[in-house]
Amino acid sequence: MSIAGDHDAEMPESSAAGTDVDACISAVEEILNYKFTNRKLLEDALTHPSYTESPSYQRLEFVGDAVLGLAFANFFYLAYPMVDQGILSLLRSANISTENLARVAVRHGLYRYVRHNTAALDLKVQEFALAVQEEGETTVYGGAVKAPKVLADIVESVVAAVYVDCEFDLKYLWQVIRGLLEPIITLESLPLQPVTML
């Protein structure tokens, strides 16, 4: 079973040394099926704070966190006009959780393109990727291995890079990123939260 879809490859031993930035940007553009006007945005989105030679993804991740929440809020508001805000909030939360976004990063192999200077990240990501492979895609609220936050951060920062690059057009952003985020957790596939089941 391939955990990263068509973009699957072995995890790198180090994503920092000798990384061809242009090749990484092109690969992520292919995953997104989107060409950046300002490729520097994507370069920053793919730079972990441990890689000090370039600005990191932290500012973009901040925007990406907010814009993903808004994009999913819009989507579910329109998709479920008769559903109350509590259920809409659960749907949004399930889709933008660290666990779910980390699985998106693994599924599409985004981590392979991140520049960083810490081998510990590779070990955590590899452990999580193997757990996802064993558990499958059905786990929503956390599996055997805790999702590394860096994986969710990557998705958020890449989403923000697209958002800024498309001049803050939320509707266009959704067209670009929706495929990346599939399968979307819907009302029909939303499992009960562990706390709700008590």
UniProtKB/TrEMBL annotation:
GO terms for cellular component: cytoplasm; nucleus. PROSITE patterns: RNASE_3_1 (PS00517), RNASE_3_2 (PS50142). SMART domains: RIBOc. Its cofactor is Mn(2+); Mg(2+). Pfam families: Ribonuclease_3 (PF00636). One of its GO terms (biological process) is siRNA processing. Residues 25-167 form the RNase III domain. Keywords: Endonuclease, Hydrolase, Magnesium, Metal-binding, Nuclease, RNA-binding. Gene3D superfamilies: Ribonuclease III domain. GO terms for molecular function: metal ion binding; ribonuclease III activity; RNA binding. It is an enzyme of class 3 (hydrolase). It comes from the Eukaryota. The keyword Magnesium applies. This is Ribonuclease III. The lineage of its organism: Eukaryota, Viridiplantae, Streptophyta, Embryophyta, Tracheophyta.
